[in-house]
Amino acid sequence: MSEADLPVEARTVRLEVARTSADGADAGRRDVFDVPYDDRTSVLDALQWVKDHADPTLTFRWSCKMAVCGSCGVMVNGRPVLGCETFVRGYRTSGLVVEPLAHAEVLRDLVVDTDTFLGKLAAVQPWLVPAGATRLPLVDAPAEDPAPDRGEDALRAHGPSSGSLQTPGELAAFKGFAECIDCMLCYAACPQLDPAPDFLGPAVVATARRWDEDSRDAGELDRADVLDTEFGAWPCIQVGACTQVCPKGVDPARALRDAQRVATETWEARSRRG
Ligand code: SF4
Ligand code: FES
């Protein structure tokens, strides 16, 4: 009788999970579990089954279970995926080897440190820099008295016609890059994070391009100071693995190509001017 002929309650899949304790003492340990599954069982469901029925100490991250929050990324059989949208049925014969995302420090089991990534993200000012904006200090300013509540009438008076309007074409210029959910799968897939761990990396450059391409933004020169550097956009050698694994279709490889092209054009223009 084949696996597919078995009643759902009798189907199990082999799940091998990398384990690391909080003090790092048992790094390299692997635990194996036989996990029941049906056609709707995700990798995240399988990990939760282990936590509920076999080992409550197994540690992993998730929040939305709908491919939106970006927190459930893991390596499955060597490929970075979102655990909540990857189904066990695709591994029924091979089994699953589940490991923490590559190119990130492991804090415990499948949980990796995100601080390095978030630090790189902050470096490219991932927010709208309006023309003529006053630079905000990077430390908390003393709290001021709250602004008086002007009420709904005042809000209506400053409705959409007073904002920075965009055409559909202007929106389309950056919308693809704005889909990023900061899941770090592209970092796990990038071969350049090994030789150049300080490389800003795919998602950060995609985010920088998201704002550079925004018609309301005037922060391109500030971001260029970070992108056109040894560890900015230049370590990318266009393997394209980042784009292949991205669960949101962001195409960070194109963002890196664009960033390198813009940096080259800017350098050439400055050289011509002498
Ligand atoms: S670019 Fe794609 S893979 Fe990389 S962090 Fe954003 S959503 Fe995830
Ligand atoms: S749990 Fe939010 S993306 Fe998977």
From TrEMBL:
Residue ranges spanning the membrane: these are none
Sequence segments annotated as region (Disordered): 140-164
2Fe-2S ferredoxin-type domain location is: 11-104
Q: What is its EC number?
A: 1.3.5.1
- Composition bias (Basic and acidic residues) maps to 147-156
Q: Which GO terms describe its molecular function?
A: 2 iron, 2 sulfur cluster binding; 3 iron, 4 sulfur cluster binding; 4 iron, 4 sulfur cluster binding; electron transfer activity; metal ion binding; succinate dehydrogenase (quinone) activity
This protein's pathway: Carbohydrate metabolism; tricarboxylic acid cycle
Assigned keywords, A-Z:
2Fe-2S, 3Fe-4S, 4Fe-4S, Iron, Iron-sulfur, Metal-binding, Oxidoreductase, Tricarboxylic acid cycle
Under the heading InterPro entries, the entry gives: 2Fe-2S_ferredoxin-like_sf, 2Fe-2S_ferredoxin-type, 2Fe2S_fd_BS, 4Fe4S_Fe-S-bd, 4Fe4S_Fe_S_CS, Beta-grasp_dom_sf, Helical_ferredxn, SDH/FRD_Iron-Sulfur
The prosthetic group or cofactor this protein requires is: [2Fe-2S] cluster; [4Fe-4S] cluster; [3Fe-4S] cluster
Q: Name one GO biological process term.
A: respiratory electron transport chain
Q: Matching PANTHER family, A to Z?
A: SUCCINATE DEHYDROGENASE [UBIQUINONE] IRON-SULFUR SUBUNIT, MITOCHONDRIAL, SUCCINATE DEHYDROGENASE IRON-SULFUR PROTEIN
Q: Which family does it belong to?
A: Belongs to the succinate dehydrogenase/fumarate reductase iron-sulfur protein family.
This chain's protein is named succinate dehydrogenase
Q: Which organism is it from?
A: Cellulosimicrobium protaetiae
